[in-house]
Amino acid sequence: MAPPPVIRLHPSDSVVIARATLLPGTPLAEGVAAKERIPAGHKVAVRAIAAGEPVRRYGQIIGFASQAVAAGQHVHVQNCGMGDFAKDYAYGVDARPTEYANTPLTFEGIRRPDGRVATRNYIGILTSVNCSAHVAGLVADVFRRNPFTGDDPLADYPNVDGVVALTHKTGCGMTESEPLRVLRRTLAGYARHANFSHVVVLGLGCEVNQIRGLMEEQRLTDRIRNMDIQSMGGTRKTVEAGVAFVKDVLAEANHVHREPVPVRELTVALQCGGSDGYSGVSANPALGAASDLVVRHGGSVILSETPETYGAEHLLTRRAVSPEVGEKLVALMRWWEDYTQREGAEMNANPSPGNKAGGLTTILEKSLGAMAKAGSTNLVDVVGYAEKVTAKGFVFMDTPGYDPVSATGQVAGGANLVCFTTGRGSVFGCKPAPSIKLATNTPMYQRMADDMDVNCGTILDGDETVQQCGQRVFELMLRVASGERTKSEQFDFGAAEFAPWVLGATM
Questions:
Q1: What is the mean pLDDT of residues 247-270?
Q2: Do the beta carbons of residue 397 and residue 302 sit within 8 Å?
Q3: Which of 152, 219, 478, 505 has its CA 20 to 30 Å from the CA of residue 315?
């Protein structure tokens, strides 16, 4: 039996979602039919909505009617916009004891000598400043595998996943204040990351972000080598020294093995990009179900993208384990309101043209769908950008909504796996952590099958429940954490996407 043409998410909703393109006359509810063509994934009113009245989806306010809307009409930017409304933060009222699994599962991880667990085994080349980016790339290129020809300079080192240069566009032209501290915290998080067996940091020599200052401030270990181009005597000598360093450590890096480790060693970054009207119906709730399983087995999940939680934060504060944790999240929202106002922007500027083409109208609607990635367990901690995540369970990290910047902060905080939902079809990787791509709908999954790991469109098609799809995602998480390569890894994604959050003025 074919599923109904629309999806109703809550009895109190004034809109439903088109499962596929609806033609005029398509029945929507008892006595209500579409009055016009409704694109797939978009909203259509199932009752009259007066001008100024709240528009509801998920049982929550996603905006306000900017003009009267008749039953059967398309609801989108032409007749729905932002508005103020009171939120009840009700700290902790929905927090419940976590039901942990009786028999925690395991995956095949790499146990480092200090006890940390890796899901991949890379050699990293970090840069203190943009001025050393090209040199770092030249070093990594010597060891680069070609995903199309199969050429592999590391063929004799099968346990080494690659040599990756993570470069960025800052490190100088900045003041020694918060922007520098955030950059250093991000670089240090990568330098310490369990998925790197060895790391070398390359600098120019005269930048604001001096390597010595980075090492001292962040207390980086002696395992991390460093060199700067000016002291080494220029590009050629630095590249030769960098290549020699990698060659010297390859055998040691290769000397690892995988062993069963508990899921509590898994820290999963939850991301979404290129969202559409289905994101909050299929892929995000499925990832939320998988996130609950990670937490139930003792692991951690990190939800981020603070501007894309705006308007839904009151639902997360209700799950906070303490008022202090909930208040930290609300304080972040106030900071972002001030920040966007200072920059002459507004929070509702977040939905991109692609988001809107896919059916998302306001940041409120986008946020309510995005938060579904975090499942239903308690909010146990709120941390700053790139701060180390130590709590087990569901953690929120303050980041921008821009996917590469957000994921960079999560991996710096210790995420050793990334799960990324998309409705429009984002291509993405995040070395040194593997990235799993979840498609919200079957047509996009089929069109971009080379890039998508999971089709969550089966939920829309009526072939799976959210819980069944979430179980499938969780099982893939364990296989990927155990070494199974994702689609983005097959294309060698993940180096260019390294993007530390740039704060403050460029001088």
A1: 98
A2: yes
A3: 478
